[in-house]
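Try this one yourself first.
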């Protein structure tokens, strides 16, 4: 029998305390190890998403350890005490035999592991995640094998113009804060990281008291709590405080520029500005500004750049992170267009917003698009869990439940104000991707080729 919100809020288990409920999402805390559990009924299909969010990402990596969270993401699939090659029960084979969708992602503020599977197999997902929370093997041969895989992945990123420019702008905009580091890490660190380094990082951050388990699907709260208790309840909390503080980024006191030159065909311009953390109310106004600038064919920069043949496209984003991040605009250039021309066009459109604001029609359109995006973000159990995952990483899962309300309250004056306050030259970082034409020898074209 399905439980409603009122009875679900009262759901109890000897290992858990009910904390709060909002918008159909219920939070519980395990008494034995401080593990947080979020549960929400989503009964559109007989499936459930089991997602484990560790509050550790590249933000938590120190010198010599950049890329450690991403490295561990790979290794967590290579074997744990109960799921490994030797006993024929690897994570992937065990879950995929059930038709489950299984993967993991690493980002600046978090790492997550998840299973989307038939609700009857929720127990297996919990068993796997509890086992590798503290039982990952991290074997030397796996560390060596995955190093090659990650270095190949890093090489591919070096050859992707958009990714290379994106990383270069972030590392130029941030000098002290770890957002300076790409999530995949710097090559030298990946090449030299040892099994002991990774074990130390794992033993620092991968504990139940640094973790939230989200279970979204056609399952009851009592069933979820019993299942989580069976598998996670005996896992003790860390015996040390989980490190949370990172170096603060000093105020930027002047424009910064970076030029990336690589073989390629077309240039790219990226313009970025410092913005507040996700919990700051101005983040929602910057989201609305982003929509007005670049979402859809009637957006300002689409009309200014794409319709006029200056760019092949344009997009922007307000990064909602635990710490202050970047509001950025990226425009891949059309052939024969100079970077400086597109940079000036972007600057001019931002000036128009700062001085003249936006129209009521633009604001209404942005609100409509954000509302539609929010509805899409609740389309199925995985979509909800993934959105919750980002809110957890930003510091408070309730950011997910309140985002639409905050966005709908943004006024035209709010949009103009954040453009004035944040889109300013002294806090701007500009990046150019400048394609270089390969020589005939570099292309392997010479008189000796057949």
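Now uncover the answer:
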């Amino acid at each position: 029998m399905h439980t409603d919100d009122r009875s679900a809020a009262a759901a109890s288990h000897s290992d858990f305390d009910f904390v709060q409920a909002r918008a159909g999402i219920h939070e519980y805390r395990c008494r034995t190890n401080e593990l947080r559990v979020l549960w929400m009924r989503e009964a559109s299909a007989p499936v459930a998403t089991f997602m484990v969010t560790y509050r550790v990402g590249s933000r938590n990596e120190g010198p010599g350890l950049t890329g450690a969270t991403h490295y561990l993401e790979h290794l967590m699939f290579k074997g744990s005490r109960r799921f490994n090659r030797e006993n024929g029960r690897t994570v992937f084979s065990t879950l995929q035999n059930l038709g489950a969708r299984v993967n993991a992602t690493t980002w600046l503020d978090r790492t997550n592991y998840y299973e989307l599977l038939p609700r009857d197999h929720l127990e297996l997902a919990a068993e796997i995640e509890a086992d590798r929370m503290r039982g990952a093997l991290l074997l030397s041969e796996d560390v060596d094998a995955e190093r090659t895989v990650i270095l190949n992945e890093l090489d591919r990123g070096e050859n992707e113009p958009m990714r290379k420019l994106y990383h270069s702008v972030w590392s130029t905009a941030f000098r002290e804060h770890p957002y300076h580091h790409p999530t995949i890490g710097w090559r030298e660190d990946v090449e030299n990281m040892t099994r002991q380094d990774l074990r130390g990082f794992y033993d620092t951050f991968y504990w139940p008291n640094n973790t939230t388990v989200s279970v979204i699907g056609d399952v009851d709260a009592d069933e979820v709590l019993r299942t989580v208790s069976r598998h996670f309840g005996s896992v003790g909390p860390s015996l040390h405080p989980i490190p949370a503080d990172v170096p603060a980024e000093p105020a930027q006191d002047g424009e910064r520029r970076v030029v990336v030159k690589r073989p390629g065909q077309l240039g790219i311009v990226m313009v970025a500005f410092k913005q507040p953390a996700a919990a700051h109310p101005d983040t929602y106004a910057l989201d609305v500004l982003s929509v007005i600038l670049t979402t859809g064919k009637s957006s300002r920069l689409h009309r200014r750049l794409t319709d006029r043949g200056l760019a092949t496209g344009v997009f922007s984003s307000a990064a909602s992170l635990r710490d202050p991040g970047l509001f950025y605009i990226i425009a891949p250039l059309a052939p024969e267009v100079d970077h400086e021309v597109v940079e000036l066009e972007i600057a001019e459109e931002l000036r128009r917003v700062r001085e003249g604001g936006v129209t009521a029609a633009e604001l209404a359109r942005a609100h409509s698009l954000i509302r539609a995006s929010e509805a899409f973000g609740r389309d199925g159990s995985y979509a909800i869990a993934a959105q919750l995952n980002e809110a957890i990483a930003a510091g408070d899962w309730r950011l997910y439940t309140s985002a639409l309300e905050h966005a709908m309250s943004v006024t035209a004056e709010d949009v103009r104000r954040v453009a004035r306050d944040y889109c300013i030259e002294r806090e701007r970082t500009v990046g150019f991707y400048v394609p270089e034409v390969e020589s005939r020898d570099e292309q392997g074209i010479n008189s000796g080729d057949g």
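Discussion: The longest strand covers residues 428-436. Confidence is low (pLDDT under 50) at residues 1-7, 440-450.
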